[in-house]
Amino acid sequence: MCESHRRQVWLVTESSQAGGGPRNADTNAPHADQDAEFPGQVEILDAKTREKLCFLDKVEPHATIAEIKNLFTKTHPQWYPARQSLRLDPKGKSLKDEDVLQKLPVGTTATLYFRDLGAQISWVTVFLTEYAGPLFIYLLFYFRVPFIYGHKYDFTSSRHTVVHLACICHSFHYIKRLLETLFVHRFSHGTMPLRNIFKNCTYYWGFAAWMAYYINHPLYTPPTYGAQQVKLALAIFVICQLGNFSIHMALRDLRPAGSKTRKIPYPTKNPFTWLFLLVSCPNYTYEVGSWIGFAIMTQCLPVALFSLVGFTQMTIWAKGKHRSYLKEFRDYPPLRMPIIPFLL
Ligand SMILES: NC(=O)c1ccc[n+]([C@@H]2O[C@H](COP(=O)([O-])OP(=O)(O)OC[C@H]3O[C@@H](n4cnc5c(N)ncnc54)[C@H](OP(=O)(O)O)[C@@H]3O)[C@@H](O)[C@H]2O)c1
Questions:
Q1: Is 61 part of a structural domain of the chain?
Q2: Which of 115, 120, 137, 215 would bridge with 82, disulfide CB 3.0–4.6 Å?
Q3: In terms of domains, do 339 and 259 share one?
Q4: Residues 113, 178: one domain?
């Protein structure tokens, strides 16, 4: 409980003049409009038990949710700001860090509901772990390290060109993702729950091992239509990798460094970005295309399954992002679909 600390933890004690004028006559009225002045009390309740966890007095009207989180942390250090989800409704959406109390529809005392998001880990760490794993694991199978295919195959090399090409494509894909994570993406969220890393790594690492086992197997048979099939697949893979990278660059350019700005992405001079005319998440479209190319190249069932699972997951995300765009931007281009032009 932090009621005892209320004098120490208030943000700023504002005079009645502060915030631009006298308070509303009806201080119980919701303060959804910009000119309303927030009365200055915030109580934080546990979203599950409704137990009162904290009371902050004389809070500045312009205080943001990020500032409220910092104050809450002072009395509950185990819940650092990235772990906190503050909501207006126990089951509602989390408020954004940049939301300002004065602009929220709250009464005399703002009641916020707290949920613990669990231990957090930085997005960059998550992505680096997720992507370095498949890169490394695939190479173990490619080089046929001992205890995988039997002693007589230790450190031997496949006689099929496609196996070497597949290794180059697979490694290129994950090296590209690692470099993009470090130098291209501008994430709006600093952290994600630690438990997600176990789920995500199981997915990426597990599939990489399964695919690599079969592709690099001494009894692997090359694709049915030989070099023609491999060349076509390589072309699909390369085009989709270029497309995916182009979209990532276009998304990066939407957001100035250090900001969390979200804008409607539009096609640029780069023809690979023209897919933005038809879909909201062309980076996912190209990602799926890359894996289809890889599946055709290797003609390997686990690769086809990985493509299918990835496609399903990215379709779910693309639909969510598409819905958010429609909600957020009134002038959102009506022709766009989430991930597959005219279809899905
Ligand atoms: N094989 C698979 O199963 C699989 C699954 C998922 C992803 N991937 C790959 O990983 C890549 C990245 O995935 P992701 O889910 O992070 O992609 P994403 O949501 O499209 O985001 C890519 C980057 O662009 C930013 N961004 C997105 N929309 C924006 C907008 N309207 N305005 C400003 N910035 C915006 C994102 O910032 P925020 O932090 O704000 O989102 C993020 O930094 C994908 O393109 C794909 O290649 C592969």
A1: no
A2: 120
A3: yes
A4: no
- Which residue's CA is the nearest one to ligand 1's atom 36? 187
CA 141–ligand 1 middle distance (angstroms): 29
What local confidence, expressed as pLDDT, does residue 208 receive?
98
| Cα–Cα distance for residue pair 142/218, rounded to 1 Å | 10
> Ligand 1 atom 3: the closest Cα is on which residue?
310
Residues whose CB falls within 8 Å of the CB of residue 311, separated by 6 or more in sequence, listed in order: 288, 291
d(CA 301, CA 296): 10
Residue 102 belongs to domain spanning: 79-118
Ligand 1 probe mutation, 182, 185, 205, most atoms within 8 A of CB: 185
What are the tens digits of pLDDT across the range 270-318? Answer: 999 999 999 999 999 999 999 999 999 999 999 999 999 999 999 999 9
What are the structure tokens assigned to 47, written together? 């979203």
Kindly give the number of the ligand 1 atom that is closest to the alpha carbon of 286. Answer: 47
pLDDT tens figures, 208-236:
999 999 999 999 999 999 999 999 999 99
**Do residues 204 and 128 share a domain?**
yes
Among protein residues, the one whose CA lies closest to atom 48 of ligand 1: 287
The answer to whether residues 239 and 343 belong to one domain is yes
Given 118, 140, 173, the domain boundary residue is 118
What pLDDT digit, counting tens, does each position of 88-117 carry?
999 888 998 888 888 888 776 789 999 998
**Ligand 1 — pocket residues by CB below 6 A?**
185-189, 244, 251, 254-255, 262-263, 265, 281, 283-284, 287, 310, 313-314, 317
Task: Evaluate if residue 9 carries a pLDDT over 60.
Answer: no
Assess whether 157 and 191 both reside in one domain: yes
What does the pLDDT read at residue 127? 83
Q: Is residue 16 part of a domain?
A: no
pLDDT at 72: 92
What's the CATH number where 109 sits?
3.10.20.90
Is residue 132 over pLDDT 60?
A: yes
Return phi, psi of residue 255, to 5°.
-120, 110
Q: What is the dihedral of CA 61, 65, 68, 69, to 10 degrees?
A: -170
